[in-house]
Amino acid sequence: MSFDKNSIYALLNNKHIHFKYTEHRPVYSMEELDALEMPADVVICKNLFLRNSNGKQHFLLSVPAATPIDLKQLATSLGSSRLSFASAERLEKYLRLQSGLVSPFGLLNDTSKSVIFVSSKNLPPSAIIGIHPNDNTATVWLTFGDLLALLSELQVEVKLVEM
User: Fold this and answer.
1) In the chain, at which end, N or C, are there fewer CB atoms within 10 A of the end residue's CB?
2) pLDDT digits (tens, 9 = 90+) for 95-116
């Protein structure tokens, strides 16, 4: 099964996870999302799909949009070899997503549980975050803690690092 927007909404409801969502025109970048004037009291997350130097380990990085990313420092924090952006083919293979749709909800499609979720230690569990529901025509709002609990329940490996 591949999780699309409606199946993610259903999953969140079934798990009794409080969430809201905003439908909007398709967005393909943080700049396009910024133009939509989202609520001021939430944390919009940017999401990157990364791989190590030999391509045997994959990471989905989700951090507040304003967080600078230093891939060399991140690799050190993760105890990984050099990190780089994974290809569109790898994104499709592991998360069943296309470029522009990278989201932590893509981890629901990772049946092999081979992708590690990475985020910032400094993001409080109570923070309301905004992420795509595997579809760039909506943003789901839920607490970071609820996302972490859902990923843990689904046996996704989670690493929180200093960013």
Assistant:
1) N
2) 999 888 899 999 999 999 999 9
